[in-house]
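Lab manual, section 2.4: Encoding a predicted structure.

Procedure: take the sequence of the chain (84 residues), apply the prediction step described in section 2.3, and record the output as structure tokens. A sample record is shown.
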Amino acid sequence: MTYYKPRGIPLRYLREVKLSVDELEAIRSADYQGVEQIKAAKKMKVSQSTFQRILTSARKKVSEGLVEGKAIRIEGGRVKMIRG
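Recorded output:
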């Protein structure tokens, strides 16, 4: 499990937003890598409309975490983070 949280506040004092691995992948593909939704959907083996729903949900959760100062918890599988 991976968390992103506001700096300087212990995790035990924060509310959290849960982001699935699929939601993280949708944001990574569409927003970070700039992959077209149809191509990203094929890569994830879902329809374009399903990809759009996943992406919309992910964006809402990430913005909620940032705006409200919540921890963002990534769950549902193994996540390999690459630092750049």
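Check your result against the sample. The helical segments are 21-32, 37-44, 48-68.
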